[in-house]
Amino acid sequence: MKQNIFSFDPSNGEKLGEVPAASSQDIDGVIQKAKAASKAWRRVSLEERLVTIQKAYAAAEPALHNLAELLSKEMGKDIRRSTSEVQGTIWGGPYMANSALEALRSKNTGGATIEYVPLGVAAIISPWNYPLAMANNLMMPTLMAGNSVVWKPSEETPLIAQAFFDIIHKGLPRDLLQIVHGDGSQGKTLVESDVNIIGFTGSQATGRDIMAKAAPSLKRLVMELGGNDPMIVMKDADLQAAARFAVASSFENAGQMCISTERIYVDEEVAEQFEQYITALAAQYKVGPWDMDGVNIGPIINAKQHSKIIEHIKDAVEKNARLLHGTIEHPDHFITPTVLADMTTEMRIEQEETFGPVVCVSRFADLEDAISRANDSTYGLGAVVFGNAGAHEVADRLEAGMIGVNQGVGGGGDVPWVGAKQSGFGFHGSAEGHHQFAQVRVVSR
Ligand code: NAD
Questions:
Q1: CA 176 to CA 167: how far, in whole Å?
Q2: What is the pLDDT of residue 312?
Q3: Taking CB atoms and a 6 Å cutoff, what residues make up the pocket around ligand 1?
Q4: Where does CATH 3.40.605.10 sit in the chain?
Q5: Which pLDDT score, from 0 to 100, does residue 262 have?
Q6: Is the CB of residue 340 less than 8 Å from the CB of residue 358?
Q7: Buried (b) or exposed (e) across 115-147, using 16+ Cβ within 10 A?
Q8: Where in the chain is the domain with CATH 3.40.309.10?
Q9: 363 with 369: CB under 8 angstroms?
Q10: Stretches in the chain below the pLDDT threshold 50
C-alpha cells in the first residue's frame, strides 16, 4: 500500500498536497471504532438523528462555503460549478435527512409492523468527479438509517474530502463518520473488512470487483455505476433545443459526468441541420484551468483518463468517423471539445464510457434501428429522446433507469437516482432509496 496519497492540480500536474494513506491496521482500528459508534447511534431515535444532522450542517455551513476554491483547484471544474456543488451539498444533506424521516418510520400493515432498522457499519466509497455531492448522497441516507460510516474518498481528490470531513464530522457523535484515505488497495481492504453495507459510486469495473469481494459474506450493496447514455433525435424534434441539450450534456464537467450524453442518434432527414447546430455550439466553449476568465471546460482529471479519451477519438477517426469540430491531437491535461459524426458500433467510443468532452452523432433512417442501437449497451443509466409524435413511445422502450423526454434525466428532490442493467443496483434518493440503507424487519405481535 502507498504511504501517502498525493494530490495534483489536474491543469498542470503540480503537486497540491498529500494525506496519509491508511494501512490495513489503521482500517481495522477505524472499523472497531465505527462498530462502537453504530451501537450508540442505533439507539438514537429517527427524530433525534435528524436534529443532530441538521445541527451539524447548520454549524458547518459558513466553513463549507469556503470549500469551492479548493474543489476547483483539485478537481479542475470552474468556480461557478464548484460553488454550485458546495451549495448543493449544504442544502442536500439536511434535505435528504429530512426526507428519510418519513421513509424510515415503522408502518403497520397486514397485522404486522414493518421496521427499517440499522445494518451497522457502512463503507462509503466515492469518486472524484463530484467529490462532495457523490459522497454526501450516500452518507446522508446511511446515517439517517442508523448506521455509522467509514468514508473512503477518491485518491484523486483527497484534500477536498479531508476538508469536508474536518468541517462536518465535528457536529456528529464521536466516530460516527470517519475517513480513510487510499486508492483501490485501501478500497479493497475496506470492502473485505467487517462492514455490513457498502455504498459505492464509481465505475462498472470497480463495481464488479467490489461485488465479487463482498460475495463471501453477502454484504449489502448499493451500486451507482457508470453510463454510456444515448440520445435519440426524431425528425420532428425542436432541433435547436436538442442541440443545446446534446452539447451541454456532453461537455458538462468536461464530459466527466455519469449521465453525460455519449451517443446521439439523429434522423437522417434533419441530421445535417442538427450537426451544424452542434458544431456552432461546440465552437463557443472555452477550455482552460478553473480560474481562467469565461472557462467552461476544465482539465481532465489525470493522464490515464486523458490518454483514454484521445485513444477513443483516434480509434473512431481511423474507423472513418467524420471530425466535425476539434482535433485528433490534444494539449497535455486538456481535451479540445470534439464533435464526431458517422459513428459505428465497432468504435470503442460507441461501446465504452469515454468520460470526456466529445459529442458523437450517428444518423438513422429507421427509428427501430435507433432504438436498437440506443439499447445496445451493457450500461443503462440515463437515456433521452427529443421529438414530438411518438416520442413517449420511444421513451417507453429505452433501457435505462432514468429517461428524459425533451429534457435531461432525473428530477429534483425526492426522486431516485437509479441505474438499470450494469449501471448499478441499489440506489439513493426517494423513500425507496432510503430503504436501501436499512434492514427491513417485519414484526408480528
Ligand atoms: P473508480 O471506480 O475508479 O473509483 C471510485 C472509487 O472506488 C475510488 O474511491 C477508488 O479509490 C475506489 N476503488 C477503486 N478500485 C477499487 C476496488 N477494487 N475496491 C474498492 N474500491 C476501489 O471511479 P472514478 O474514476 O473515481 O469515477 C468515475 C466513474 O464513476 C465513472 O464510471 C462514472 O460514470 C461513475 N459515476 C457514477 C455516478 C452515478 O451516480 N451512477 C456518479 C458519479 C460517477
A1: 14
A2: 98
A3: 125-129, 134, 152, 154-155, 183-184, 187-188, 191, 201-203, 206, 209-210, 224-227, 258, 353, 381, 417, 419, 424
A4: 4-226+420-444
A5: 98
A6: yes
A7: ebebbbbbbbbbbbbbbbbbbbbbbbbbbbbbb
A8: 229-378+382-405
A9: no
A10: 1
Query: Any catalytic annotation for residue 360?
Result: no
Ligand 1 pocket mutation, candidates 206, 221, 305, 354, criterion most atoms within 8 A of CB: 206
Please state whether beta strands 338-341 and 402-405 pair in parallel, antiparallel, or not at all (unpaired): unpaired
Alpha helices in 255-413 (DSSP H): 271-282, 303-318, 348-351, 367-375, 391-396
From the list 74, 156, 224, 353, the catalytic residue is 224
pLDDT at 413: 79
Residue 412 pLDDT? 80
The cell numbers describing 32, all together, are 472497531
Residue located nearest, by CA, to atom 8 of ligand 1: 154
| Domain 4-226+420-444 belongs in CATH node 1.10.1200.10 | no
Look up the CATH number of domain 229-378+382-405: 3.40.309.10
pLDDT reported for residue 411: 85
Residue 65 and residue 213: Cα distance in Å, rounded? 38
Q: Identify the pLDDT of residue 228.
A: 98
Does 74 participate in catalysis according to the annotation? no
The pLDDT of residue 367 is 98
Cell 457523535 locates to 173
Query: Would you state the pLDDT for residue 3?
Result: 83
Contacts 24+ apart (CB under 8 A), 393-398: 394/232, 394/234, 394/367, 397/371, 398/230, 398/232, 398/371, 398/374
pTM: 0.98
Residues 6 or more apart in contact with residue 335 via CB below 8 angstroms: 254, 255, 287, 297, 300, 306, 309, 310, 356, 357, 358
User: Ligand 1: which of 5, 203, 306, 423 to mutate, most ligand atoms within 8 Å of CB?
Assistant: 203
